[in-house]
């Protein structure tokens, strides 16, 4: 456990970010919140947070914050609302939900949520609510599914070496993630290793990101070709006797088959697929093979492709060939989800869950709301929604369908929000939500290993209420079964969860602030065996039945999974460019936004400037496009309008658009997700945000 003291005020960053930073909160004399700082006492946060959260007061005291419940008076989406009281709003919602339930059945109501707050009380109480009423479930597919499935297919468990060990590595491979923007603490520990041990930093991405600018070696490859690179690296490791054969024999399922399979995966073959030079591939493979303490930090970005699960599994396989797992500062890390054994039964009430209720795919919301029968899983149409912590009209794929769905006159939509997002604009009832410094919660770090308390620090303005309040009040009005979870405060939930999980009490955590749950070295490095029953790393997953932390309720594999390669290989499943769509678009994150959060802040918008598509100057010229031109970008899903910018560090045929800008920041109000497809990625679903074929022409 970490040594820690209690500063004047502290909390935890609630945003959807692997870092989950421990925060020190400056309180000004007028009682307002000043700057937020990373706790120097927390060994993962190590005193560093991102700029957007450091200036959080801008979001907390933003003039556009929602402060009053609102009822729609104009047409759907027109933006005309009138203020009503909380009681009137909750009564109205309850009446509507009961009427809809009576007419169309409970499953026609779909509570929809995501990780706008990662606090387990405020985020996950919606499950208790839905189970209590038999409302439709949500299959969470939008973010982690491909990455987790691919990693766990190899390791059998969503865990890995202590992420702080990066600081004692001799080489760090940052693959398919842009931590300077998306999880800044990775850089803290990587730079420590460079300063103290001369560690090399290798970055693999599809354009020269801010992270790559800080790297010793940067590989810019074609999107969706990471498995080819991985195979060539492993080919070289076997070829040059850099594979650890003892380790392979002891810890992996089929090393001889893998070696034979990789014979044809030469660097020349991979160069043709990835667009890299043979020399670059040889160099990186040699470094990976020769430096025992190599730490792979595998991100989400490279898994947001239709072959992303295979890409993740292939990259993770490299560590099982070198055996870097055996060393401190070595191994392959993606996420620590499985180290937290928390009893969430009071929050989620699984005892009230009816296993026959359908789980609608979060990413398919556009198809679901427009009546696609397959997406509705044979059940009734969705007639009402309660939305918390997410902004689907901006962030989900197939935006044209999503907008069409939310515009339905016969859909009753309740949005509980901090800001008037695109989704709130489409609502019948808008409820104002507290921000994290105004409510209590408990957080777990996916990219690190602490369980952290995020207590309420300030009294918020009058008006906004926490998620828990809305759910408990609605449950009462809707005649939900009497469950103790509906009568508890957030602090009581936290205390209950801690005590029932064997992690002490709330009172104790208020002193210690966080608990370090990193398992011991042997466990973390899988030296007692990997997570599968046979204890081995699996080079050959059984894709139709592979272990995965999150599967659709049917348990059935989805998408074109039957053609997934049996062993790591380049899989031809991406949305390929063609004559009509010569470019492949990657919608990478912006540093100053977090998904669509923070895109309401003035400073963030200033830094990011405007929605742009970056492309190679030569390619732009072929299409008659100059730097700064307004262009149209489109495919069969829709057309958007934004500015072109020349960028030299891309592979031919690739274009980048950073950030989820507000839809209305685009010339015609159509956001970037107008272009992205929602077809489920094999084998267990997910959205391929970085895998979209498009055309571009001058507007
Ligand atoms: N500033 C900021 N921080 C964020 C977010 C944000 O939007 N902005 N989002 C948050 C959320 S919800 C999440 S899940 C995490 C995600 O954080 P990351 O794990 O970093 O994943 P992504 O943001 O999807 O993409 C990261 C990188 O993957 C690259 N990439 C795309 N396709 C490929 C490919 O085929 N191969 C390779 N090698 N690279 C590829 C992109 O160019 C991008 O630089 O970040 C969180 N933090
Ligand atoms: N083009 C493209 N689209 C993407 C991605 C991409 O890389 N490219 N990334 C995808 C990924 S990885 C993800 S995870 C999704 C995320 O997408 P979302 O889950 O929609 O995340 P945000 O856009 O941050 O929206 C979260 C909302 O929750 C609200 N909120 C925050 N805290 C609270 C609270 O306590 N109570 C209530 N009621 N509301 C709260 C915020 O104000 C904000 O509007 O986006 C996906 N969309
Ligand atoms: S790096 Fe991530 S967790 Fe840390 S403060 Fe920024 S958004 Fe929050
Ligand atoms: Mo995400």
From TrEMBL:
Cofactors (names): Mo-bis(molybdopterin guanine dinucleotide)
Short name of any one Pfam family annotated for the protein: Molybdopterin
Domain 4Fe-4S Mo/W bis-MGD-type: 6-64
Alphabetical list of Gene3D superfamilies matching this protein: 2.40.40.20, 3.40.50.740, ADC-like domains, Dimethylsulfoxide Reductase, domain 2, Formate dehydrogenase/DMSO reductase
InterPro entries assigned to the protein according to its UniProt record, in alphabetical order: Asp_de-COase-like_dom_sf, MoPterin_dinucl-bd_dom, Mopterin_OxRdtase, Mopterin_OxRdtase_4Fe-4S_dom, Mopterin_OxRdtase_prok_CS, Prok_Mopterin_Oxidored, YoaE_C
Source species, domain of life: Bacteria
Keywords: Iron, Iron-sulfur, Metal-binding, Molybdenum, Oxidoreductase
Family: Belongs to the prokaryotic molybdopterin-containing oxidoreductase family.
Protein name: Molybdopterin oxidoreductase family protein
